[in-house]
Design goal:
With 150 residues, the chain is mainly alpha-helical. Helix content is 61%, strand content 0%. It has five helices and no strands. Helix 1 packs parallel to helix 3.
């Protein structure tokens, strides 16, 4: 059974952790194009700046991947709640930061694959692992919000 407060905390963490990162695109002086030439748009380069909570987000991503695998292993009907929570967190946290998005996605997949390589059926230890990971994720999300939230 999904603990509603855990899900709410993770969702809240995703909303609160949205960081406004923006970098002004540097423009270089260019000569005016001739009337017959077409000017190509200058690509906007967004500089990726690590946040002070990036390592915590990576761990949270790994936990979400682990819980996603373990929950679906032990329930009758597959659920997509944890993967969707991760997708929302990635979308809000890494708007134009490809490298951060890749790191968070890799951490989610690593958490998923780690347990997929160990558990193929729902067992008592799998249930305990899922409960512990959910508790760790809830604690981590609360700490991130408390320390870095606005």
């Amino acid at each position: 059974m999904i603990n509603a407060s855990t899900l709410a905390r993770l969702a809240l963490a995703g909303l609160v952790l949205t960081a406004a990162t923006g970098a002004a695109a540097q423009k270089t002086p260019t000569k005016e194009p001739a009337k017959t030439e077409t000017a190509a748009p200058v690509p906007v380069v967004v500089e990726e700046k690590p946040t002070p909570y990036d390592q915590r987000l990576i761990r949270l991503s790994e936990i979400l991947g682990s819980v996603h695998y373990l929950r679906n292993l032990c329930v009758k009907e597959p659920e997509d709640v944890w993967r969707r929570s991760m997708q929302e967190l990635i979308d809000k946290e890494t708007v134009d930061e490809v490298k951060r998005r890749e790191r968070m996605t890799a951490a989610f997949n690593r958490g998923y694959r780690t347990f997929a390589s160990v558990y193929t059926t729902c067992t008592g230890p799998a249930i305990v692992a899922e409960q512990r990971y959910r508790a760790e994720g809830a604690t981590l999300a609360s700490e991130i919000v408390a320390r870095f939230g606005n």
